[in-house]
Amino acid sequence: MPDASVKKDFSVQQYFAQQMEEDKSMSSGIAAIKTLLMVLERTKFDTVHILHSTIQEAVKEMRNTDLSQAAIVSGTELFMRFITLAKFDDKPMEECKQIMLHRGKIFLEKLLQSRSTIAHQALQFVTDGCRILTHSRSRVVLQALIDAHTKSNKQFQVFVTHGGPDNAGDQMVAELEKVGIDAILILDSAVGYVMESVDLVMVGAEGVVESGGIINRIGSFTMALCAREMKKPFYVLAESFKFTRLYPLNQRDLPVEYKYIKRQRDNFKAHPMVDYTPPAYITLLFTDLGILTPSAVSDELIKLYL
Amino acid sequence: MLNLLFQSNTITIFEFSPVQILQFKRNLTFKRQNMVEDFDISPHNPPLKAIAGLIHDVKRGKLEGSYNITVKTLDILKKIISVCDWKSAEELMKLIRTQGKILASALPQEVVTANITRRIIKLIREEYDLLQAKVHQITDDSQASLHKLVTQTSDNDISRDYSKPQEGLREALLDHLQEIETEMETCSENVSAQAEEHIHTSEVILTLGHSRSVENFLKRAVKKRENLTIIIAECAPACRGHHLAANLATGSAEIVVIPDSTIFAMMSRVNKVIIGTHSVLANGGLRAACGAYTVALAAKHYSVPVIVLAPMYKLSPVHMCNVEQDAFNLVECAEGVIPYNSLAAKFAKVYSPIFDYVPPELVTLFISNMGGHAPSYVYRLLSELYHPEDYEL
Amino acid sequence: MSTPRRINKSTTGIYLFWFGSDILWERVGSWQLSSVKSLAKLLVEITMSKPAEKGSTDKKTDLSENKLSREEVKAQREAKKAAKLAKKKGKDDTNSGEAVPKDNKSQSKDANKAVGDAKAPAPAKSNKGPAKEPSSPGKADAKKPTNANEKNKQTNQKVDRAPQKQPTKPAQQKQSAKPNNGNETSKPEPAKTEIIPATPRTKQKKYKAKLFNHLNGDTKAHKLFINNTAVHPSIIRVGEQYLNRSVTGSNARCIAFLYAIRTIIQDYVTPPNQEFSRGLEANIKNYVDYLQNFRPLAVSIINAYKYIKYILTQLPTNSTDSKLKENLCELIDAYIRDQIDKAAEAISSTVQEKICNGDVILTFGCSSLINHILEEAHRRNVDFRVIIVDCGPFLEGQELLRRLISKGISCTCVLINAIGFIMPEVTKVLLGAHALLANGYVMARTGTAQIALVARSFNVPALVCCETHKFSERVQTDAIVFNELGNPEDIVKESNIKEKRLANWQSFQKLYPLNLIYDITPPELVSAVVTEVAILPCTSVPVILRIRPTEILY
User: What are the boundaries of the signal sequence (chain A) (predicted)?
Assistant: First the structure.
């Protein structure tokens, strides 16, 4: 029974919030991982058990925020796995810690590069003169489109939905226009109307689940349904740390903490923030591990966890 | 010339004096250098003559059919490995990669050349790692994966260092290449051996055009199963379906030849559709003969399973981004559609495309020489055949 | 018949039936001596045997005595087969293309349903063979429908015919016995070779696409003769035109038919004891039945025929013949004018609203209606271009291409297997139809269904343009239960491939080229049907059928 109370000289939530503030373009998952790395660094632990419990607490605190849960959960799970895999039974704790820190740094660096890898892969699918439909604001998609425009000089048109209730789509349009891409804001309900004139749909994801489906801002499922009906390809751009071991069967099966922000969780009339898109509607996933079909996602997760 | 070379390699030496032996060796190496002009790897003349010869043959139509091209390419690459002067794995890979690139850019539709190049490069990596692993205990896991991501120990771990010279690499490679060659030779038999598992008695099978794999597959089925009816769509304008029909007509199955327009009408009575393909794309889709899309759609409409015979060398890690993608489709001579000397030909545009894209959701099963696979599993087969870094040669 | 031809003994026998004595001797001179003996033998037999109605048993008795010639043995075998068939008679209504015999009770209704039943009859020249039409008008055979029966249809028919004497229509002829015949019937080889026993041919026929035995009609056209005195020449001419495909397309065939009927009406002379309309009706019925032999009647023709029957019943009884004839001709002209010409105008104007600037319109084969629509659009200076999809074996698209190019419309042409390639550029698909069935399915030239399928997969709307006179009350769910089979030789010959591996496909026992003429498009693949009455969804076809008088529609 080790003493579970370890003196903490840092505040997880503060650090986390600080990270998010500093770099607006950073995903909450990466911020979570950064926070956990910080925790790892600053915790003094003699056994892995203590380390685990400290990290668990930190994770709990982070989940208490209002940010999107899916990325945080998947990021922290991945970190936990990282810890587990980095544990060496035959080495003293100090050495383990150093190895972990070292690996952690590399891990983080790789993750930070993931967006540009994805943008590079998506480049070949964006052609001159094509019309792209995207949903709300996704930083990965933003980077992919900006890269396509600036690096390969392609001309294309982007339709962006409002992505209510916080109208993040407006911000996306502003950012696209700043770079010189022709962007048009449309209502969420106009997706069916617009779908027959676009060439492809590109969305980001907050989480990629084990079935190969995605969890994304509410409205993505509708868009995927429309795209399938109109025979348009539906591409998802997601970094690999967003893969999570969840397996929702339908919309109701999504965990409550994903769907509603904290203060709304007791209110049954609250509006969910995310929805689940089954893998049958997704054509391809662009990740930093390569261009995957939805069935390959499960393969990756199995390789990691089993 | 090269035959001579190999023959001379097997000369036995009877009681020569050391000086003579030395001279002999010198002569051998001299001859070897001469013979190797075909495989001269100086940077001043890529492509190698043998490669250029291959390109030339394919373009002139002397060498056709994916199988033949693959075998020939394999042959040339094998000779490169055995004959050319290279010191490290890295050098060899670079050499093969350049030649592969040349082949791919000269023959963009013949993806089998690029495929076999990638395969060989992966082979080189594997053999090198194996040999290295005997020396240093390094786990061999070069695929990018979440697992890898999480367990990396050093910065440039993914790109292994291949530049150390390694003993025994050439021999190991040649050995393994022999295995690949055997695999190629038995490819067609392995595919057709699965015919009995998929075709039962009294079936009605539909096929399109003329594919060698399909012909062997069906011949075997006809031998083993009774009362088959095979409907062959002729696939205008080349009407290669007629060839298949004539070849199969000697068996015991009933053969019906139909024009391409009757495919939908007949589909309601068909039990299975069996087609060959030119290549399989990374998402499980096909680049098949023109008309395959209609067949697959009609099969989907009537819920008829579509079985595609695709030996492993046809699996290619390219994605089809969109229909106007460069070099996805070719148009050939349009004489078959409208004769050149007709009045209409002056004013009308005429197209005669060669390939068709079939999306993976229309395909039920792939049968390769390794067994049957679902289209959703193609990504896994690709990761076993090729290294992700070689996807773009 | 300058070159003496070797004639199969069996065919010789059949020829005999048709010959009046004068023609017989003319022909005999050109045949080889060896066959003349058998000819003479058979002639003797026939004149001595009794006429039979359903000849099976008769045939047996006729020939059972004489077992000497090979032919008789063969005929006996066939008689036995026919006996079997006689028992199973009247099973299937959709049957071989022979027109229903008048004397055959069970098949009287089938006359109207004989559309598309038979295989397309052999090419034209067969008509010129020597045979004399027996006295009774029309009815070709007492042959039973060979339905779902794997036996050789032809031999069956031959059996049925054999005992029948002159009164009946010329029986099936094995073939090409016509001396001056560049015959291309589907069973040509016996003609070329020497005396072949019937069995190999029978065997070969057995593997002729079992699925389609119910559709196999035999080509009786080769046994029809131009100078058949019992049939009006205009009918023969129309039949010829159908047969050698100089008149194709449902509208064109319908118009040709109506013109022929009009001529018949004008030439008709009422026999003394008959009423004008009754006699004319009977007469026309015979001619129509005769016409079936050339090519199964199109739905448009059958509807026109029903209309004619209807107006014949509505004629006033107290007018003079000439007035009635005038009346009738006017009504026929009005039918052509309203149902075909005006309907085309109405449909065209409706579709014009759907053709906008920048459109890329895809069409298939050669439909006169679509041609009309596109020319009209061009006249209105709409900026569009046309993609014509063509397919073997008839390559009808080239005709449309020729017409559109002569008007200056920019066209692209592809074969049907390239529709996956070309469809991303297309904004609309316009298709013609042969008929619209009551359950909403569209019966059109084979290949139409594929076009609609691929169009649906690319989300391109497909419009079917069809006048209401082509609406049919029949229902059908797939293309095989009821269709017309074309000449299998067309598939092998028309392809301009370098090595014709199937040039002698007959020698392969189990190989058969299949040439379906029509296919059925399900209504979910069609966005709309444009008729002169309205633009309808495909499922509303029964509504139109309901509001039209039912006597008129088939």
Answer: none
